[in-house]
Amino acid sequence: MPRTLTLRLEGEVTLAEYAKAIDAFQDLVKALTAEVGGTTLDWVVTGLEASSAVATVEARPHDEAERHVEDAVIRIYEETGQYLQRRQMPPFTRAVRPISILTDLINGRITSLGLETEATEAIITSKLSDRQPVGVRVLSAAYGAVDGFVETLQHHGSLRFTLYDALNGKAVSCYLDPGSEETMRDVWGKRAVVEGLVRRDPLTGRPITIRRITTVSVTQGAGAPDDSYRRARGAVPWTAGPPPEVVIRQLRDA
Prior knowledge:
Number of strands: 10
Number of helices: 5
Strand order of the largest sheet: 2-3-1-4-5
CATH architecture of the largest domain: 2-Layer Sandwich
Radius of gyration: 24 Å
Structural class: alpha+beta
Largest sheet: 5 strands, antiparallel
Number of domains: 2
Strand content: 25-35%
């Protein structure tokens, strides 16, 4: 089963900054692959979400040896996120330059940097060069539901999909448990409520990821049906003055 690495930028991201982030993300993945002794493992782009400047890559191991490299890269990518969340440089020397480039993108307009896998995520909210003391920003998690639009489904058997939050249009990464692929049958492109373990940004309350998903329920859609006004007729009783059709008739006959 393919597994993914995701980079997330929050805030107002310019095209130049996004391009710089993608280049640094590529260099970071290459550096971490070299750290664990891998040189030929291919990482393929499987998702680009513009609303939150999110990029996702997926490994393509050719044999069992490369599968072990994939496991090791994912592990140290997660460790990198945890180090950076604590405002510490991780002990992976090849990755220092791309890490510095990525964290230097946090400039006020770009408010945070996120490193995410199918198992965990980390949010970095300050440059490593900042001297101001900053508290660790840990994602809060609780079971809940998020209403949004399913716009991206990963291919090649991955269990990740993207939900665009109906409240703010931001991308939320959703991870299904193995064996629950049928949950997403005929859901792509529709509005749905996804229930599970929701991790939220502690400052904004915005959902970042949903894991341990229990249900994905398709709702009516973005708007009411075209004939919904017919069912609304009589919903509110008329309490003052003549009905509209009488007023119109009176004006016509005047």
